[in-house]
Design a protein that fits this description.
The chain is mainly alpha-helical. It is built from 3 helices and 2 strands. The protein is elongated.
């Protein structure tokens, strides 16, 4: 008997989707040593991420909600790694 499993969504939360959009756009990056996500403070990358969110939101999410999710995630990310020494 052939059984078909229902596919899980690629991202379980809108926040996970938003982090992926920000990574793809180059607006955030991971600290190579500790793994913390850091804001690159690149305005062009931020604009790319917001444009990507508006043009290709997840299923059942409006473009405005997708943009708001990306902006909220971006606002919650700092530009320094809390474990790195100051100035790194």
């Amino acid at each position: 008997m052939l059984m078909i499993k229902e596919r899980r969504p690629l991202f379980r939360t809108i926040e996970g989707w938003a982090r992926n959009v920000l990574l793809q756009a180059g607006a955030i990056r991971e600290c190579e040593e500790h793994g913390w996500i850091r804001d690159r403070a690149d305005p062009d990358a931020r604009e790319r991420a917001l444009l990507m969110a508006r043009q290709d939101p997840p299923f059942d999410v409006s473009p405005d909600e997708a943009v708001a999710a990306v902006a909220e995630v971006l606002g919650s990310i700092g530009d320094t790694c809390p474990e790195c020494p100051p100035g790194v």
